[in-house]
Amino acid sequence: QVQLVESGGGLVQPGGSLRLSCVASGMIFSNYVLGWYRQAPGNEREFVARIRRFGTTNYADSVKGRFTISRDNAKNTVYLHLNSLKPEDTAVYYCTAGRPTGSTWAWDYWGQGNQVTVSS
User: Fold this and answer.
1) What are the phi and psi torsion angles at 38 (to 5°)?
2) Can you give the pLDDT at residue 102?
3) 30 in Cβ contact with 72 (< 8 Å)
4) Hey, how many other C-beta atoms are within 10 angstroms of the C-beta on 114?
5) 30 — phi, psi (to 5°)?
6) What is the largest CA-CA distance in the chain?
7) Per-residue confidence (pLDDT) for residue 103, from 0 to 100
8) In whole angstroms, what is the distance from residue 119 CA to residue 15 CA?
9) Which of 95, 93, 92, 70 is nearest to 81 (CA)?
């Protein structure tokens, strides 16, 4: 069974940094596109970042230049580096994975979420 487990969240001050990790099991990690989403209270879940099999990345405008997604296939892990954090970044962050079929993919698997709180 495929499982994604996030870690690394917590409370940080505005302007601070954090690194989230997501470890996958039960799949051939290198075959999957990986992503991060977030959901704040009262809001819909929103796209944050994704990384394709060969390293191409995409970011939401709200985080571009501040967040970095990366992957380590040898460790079956995808990371999200959150820098220059703002209070509006406060949310539950979810990792997700999908296997491409042709030119597209679906987000087939999700982690259970990890809380990031940015506050002074």
Assistant:
1) -145, 155
2) 84
3) no
4) 23
5) -65, -15
6) 46
7) 80
8) 10
9) 70
Contact 2, 96 (CB under 8 A): no
The pairing of strands 10-12 and 33-39 is: unpaired
* pLDDT, tens digit (0-9, with 9 covering 90-100), for 28-43: 999 999 999 999 999 9
Q: Please compute the mean of the pLDDT values over residues 80-94 and round it to a whole number.
A: 98
How does the average pLDDT of the chain come out, rounded?
A: 96
pLDDT value of residue 4? 97
Centre a 10 Å sphere on the Cβ of residue 30 and count the other Cβ atoms it contains: 11
User: If we measure between CA atoms, which residue out of 63, 48, 40, 57 comes closest to residue 96?
Assistant: 48
> Which residues, in sequence order, are CB contacts of 80 under 8 Å at separation 6+?
19, 20, 22, 36, 48, 49, 67, 68, 69, 93, 95
Cα 40 from Cα 72, distance rounded (Å): 28
Binned at pLDDT 50, 70 and 90, residue 104 comes out as confident
How many other C-beta atoms can be found within 10 angstroms of the C-beta atom of residue 79?
19
